[in-house]
């Protein structure tokens, strides 16, 4: 048995007994809903399931959803040489597309679900002159959006503010599309690798296990980059999943983005989660398994389910103290 296995055949049998324990672990369950099957590009069931099935019953054909900017429902303004264009046409799919053109070299978009008093501000650095796909992580409801330009130092001045309503067609859609944090296309090498790795999988449990183990066994932890991050030299850093695949190394953010890409491209709803593991700012993943709900990457070890993620699994026991029984994990943001 692979020592980093996410779920084994014995683990599948035991998961029903362990799930009640897992539901009390912080970050292990982000909320359970109806399974509804995995979705492909046409919004249909991908055919994979948690129960196993015959050998090779998993459809490993890539199911990459492509964000669009049709321009049928827009927010924004053109004023004093500044152009803000926010396409909310596909908010029912769980994302918006933002563009800024103007004189500011640094621009942020702050997105917040205003009808939730506990909602956090999601701060995004916009690509000046480009387009950014941003997920609506708070689900259906009212969102406030603010675009602000950098005036000096860390000070930003508002350029544009507005609100909009979003009613999702499907709760899983934000976690199947690519976005600014999990950036991929149908041509990405990570998508092709996910197809190859999941060949012969028997269901979504098996597909997740194969992808999880691939990352653990093939991607090394980049201690140099981690030190740069610790020194604050990677502010605004966003992962390039194909670079991580090519160099075979990365930090937690890289691991999480790569695994999220591979799973989403296989039709498995996956959240890239950012928060704290103990005192360490960290990134990990949460997947939706049919018949189970949202769970974080977990491992059955010494008769206990423990919270696990690709970064700590690949670096071995020296980081195990940060994982513990899962209570060290404090999720803050979902992408």
Summary of the model, kept short:
By secondary structure, this protein is α+β, with helices and mostly antiparallel strands. Helix content is 23%, strand content 30%. It has 2 domains: 74-171, Immunoglobulin-like (Sandwich), CATH 2.60.40; 189-334, Roll (C8orf32 fold).
Provide tags for this entry:
8 helices, 2 domains, Immunoglobulin-like, C8orf32 fold, single chain, 335 residues, alpha+beta
Mind explaining what this structure looks like?
This protein is an alpha+beta fold and 335 residues long. It has 2 domains: 74-171, Immunoglobulin-like (Sandwich); 189-334, C8orf32 fold, CATH 3.10.620. The protein contains 8 helices and 16 strands. The strands form 5 sheets. The protein has a 4-stranded antiparallel β-sheet, with no helix packed on it. Strands 5-4-7-8 form a 4-stranded antiparallel β-sheet, with no helix packed on it. A hairpin with a 2-residue loop joins β11 and β12. The chain is globular.
């Amino acid at each position: 048995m692979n020592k980093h296995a996410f779920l084994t055949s014995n683990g599948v049998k035991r998961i029903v007994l362990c799930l009640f324990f897992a539901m009390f672990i912080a970050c292990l369950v982000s909320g359970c809903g109806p399974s509804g099957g995995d979705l492909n590009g046409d919004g249909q069931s991908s055919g994979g399931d948690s129960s196993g099935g015959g050998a090779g019953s998993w459809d490993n054909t890539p199911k990459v959803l492509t964000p669009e900017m049709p321009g049928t429902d827009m927010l924004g303004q053109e004023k004093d040489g500044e152009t803000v264009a926010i396409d909310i046409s596909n908010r029912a799919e769980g994302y918006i597309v933002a563009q800024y053109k103007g004189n500011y070299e640094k621009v942020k978009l702050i997105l917040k679900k205003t009808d939730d008093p506990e909602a956090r501000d999601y701060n995004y650095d916009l690509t000046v002159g480009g387009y950014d796909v941003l997920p609506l992580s708070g689900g259906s409801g009212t969102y406030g959006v603010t675009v602000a330009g950098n005036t000096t130092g860390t000070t930003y001045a508002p350029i544009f503010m507005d609100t909009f309503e979003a009613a999702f067609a499907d709760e899983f859609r934000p976690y199947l599309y690519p976005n600014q944090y999990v950036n991929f296309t149908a041509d990405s090498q990570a998508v092709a690798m996910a197809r190859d790795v999941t060949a012969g999988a028997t269901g979504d449990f098996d597909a997740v296990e194969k992808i999880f183990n691939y990352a653990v066994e093939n991607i090394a932890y980049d201690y140099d980059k981690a030190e740069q991050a610790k020194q604050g030299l990677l502010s605004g850093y966003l992962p390039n999943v194909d670079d991580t695949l090519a160099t075979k190394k990365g930090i937690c953010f890289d691991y999480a983005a790569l695994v999220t890409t591979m799973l989403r491209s296989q039709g498995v709803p996956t959240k890239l989660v950012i928060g704290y593991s103990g005192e360490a700012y960290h990134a990990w993943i949460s997947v939706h398994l049919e018949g189970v709900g949202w769970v974080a990457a977990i491992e059955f070890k010494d008769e206990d389910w423990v919270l696990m993620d690709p970064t700590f699994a690949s670096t071995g026991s020296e980081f195990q103290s940060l994982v513990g029984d899962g209570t060290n994990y404090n999720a803050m943001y979902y992408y």
